[in-house]
């Protein structure tokens, strides 16, 4: 297991992954940092599970930062009602993510050894301290990313439990196992469930439209991929991106899976980026060569799809204290 799994399933805790660069054992016996009364105060519930202020604060500040990148660095000095509503919706929706996974564990009767989950979280925190060089640097990193030690440990516990849930889903034949290589190769040929794309993206809508106009004027995707407007440098080999439903953002997937093979999308927005994608056929040789990696991504993608479905049934219910908090005023 590693911190990347949190990234694949629980995108709201990306800062934790940033802290955990590599996994190395140190066994330093670091004690958990006791949270303040404010941090540990209950602000509401999701599915009957208490939500603490530390999580609300982390998500709020993370989304405020993202929106600042999108709408301008001074936007929170005098926010519009539209931006306030957007922030509230983003935060309240994001809160449900962790609890959707916890409740799925109950739905599928997953037995969790809480002691082992705590030991895993402890191991990961000690690893972070080792990588960063000192406990003081770890504490500073928590501050830099709006995190608390308690919330980091909670998220690593979620990571641990996601592994147990995947094992249960494989056991119940709801997800293909690592040994189901032939079945997985056949699965990648099903265009309803699996896709391969090449793409460009930019954070500028105007630049995205410029690239789309280049396509309309006769340029090929390979031309705009190499243009100065493209900000996607992840496809170094030119093979494109292979994925199943659940691995990408839902709005991105909805566009891709609606395309026919060879078709190019119009400009569309997902997150804070503007994309143009072209759907291609998956190449069996590439799938076979990268089978282990693609299989792992598929398994976590399928789990993420279940988390999404569960999230649609959940809402964050703030208590009286939670209702009194103005998200734009959280610092």
Describe the structure.
Helix content is 53%, strand content 11%. The chain is of the alpha+beta class and 331 residues long. It folds into 2 domains: 4-175 and 307-329, no CATH class; 190-281, Roll (Chitinase A, domain 3), CATH 3.10.50.40. Helix 3 crosses helix 4 and helix 5 crosses helix 6 (135-144). Mean pLDDT is 90; it is low at 1-27.
What's a quick, concise take on this entry?
This protein has 331 residues and is an alpha+beta fold. The protein contains 14 helices and seven strands. β5 (268-270) and β6 form a beta hairpin.
Q: Regions with pLDDT < 50 over 5+ consecutive residues?
A: 1-27
Large-scale geometry = globular
Arrangement of strands in the largest sheet:
4-3-6-5
Largest sheet: 4 strands, antiparallel
Strand content: 5-15%
* Mean pLDDT rating: 90
Helix content: 40-55%
**Number of domain units:** 2
The SS-based structural class is: alpha+beta
Count the E strands.
7
Number of separate helices = 14
Distance between the termini: 33 Å
H/E order of the elements?
A: HHEEHHHHHHEHHEHEEHHEH
Rg (C-alpha, Å): 21 Å
């Amino acid at each position: 297991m590693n911190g990347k799994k949190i990234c694949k399933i629980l995108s709201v805790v990306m800062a934790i992954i940033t802290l955990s660069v590599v996994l190395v054992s140190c066994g330093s016996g670091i004690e958990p940092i006791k949270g303040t009364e404010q941090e540990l105060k209950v602000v509401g519930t999701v599915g009957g599970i208490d939500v603490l202020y530390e999580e609300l604060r982390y998500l709020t500040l993370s989304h405020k930062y993202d929106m600042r990148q999108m709408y301008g660095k001074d936007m929170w000095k005098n926010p519009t009602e539209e931006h306030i509503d957007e922030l509230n919706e983003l935060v309240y929706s994001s809160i449900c993510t962790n609890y959707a996974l916890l409740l799925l564990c109950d739905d599928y009767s997953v037995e969790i050894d809480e002691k082992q989950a705590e030991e895993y979280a402890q191991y990961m925190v000690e690893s972070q301290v080792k990588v960063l060089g000192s406990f003081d640097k770890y504490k500073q990193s928590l501050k830099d990313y709006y995190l608390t030690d308690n919330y980091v440990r909670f998220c690593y516990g979620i990571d641990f439990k996601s592994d147990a849930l995947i094992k249960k889903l494989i056991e119940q034949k709801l997800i293909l196992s690592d040994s189901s290589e032939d079945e997985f190769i056949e699965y990648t040929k099903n265009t309803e469930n699996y896709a391969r794309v090449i793409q460009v993206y930019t954070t500028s809508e105007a630049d995205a439209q410029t690239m789309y106009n280049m396509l309309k004027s006769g340029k090929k995707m390979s031309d705009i991929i190499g243009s100065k407007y493209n900000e996607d440098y992840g496809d170094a080999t030119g093979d494109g991106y292979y994925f199943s439903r659940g691995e990408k953002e839902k709005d991105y997937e909805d566009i891709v899976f609606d395309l026919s093979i060879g078709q190019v999308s119009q400009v569309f927005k997902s997150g804070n980026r503007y994309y143009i994608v072209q759907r291609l056929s998956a190449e069996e040789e590439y799938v076979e060569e990268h089978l282990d990696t693609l299989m792992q991504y598929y398994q976590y993608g399928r789990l993420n799809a279940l988390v999404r479905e569960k999230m649609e049934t959940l809402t964050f219910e703030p208590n009286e204290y939670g209702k009194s908090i103005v998200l734009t005023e959280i610092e």
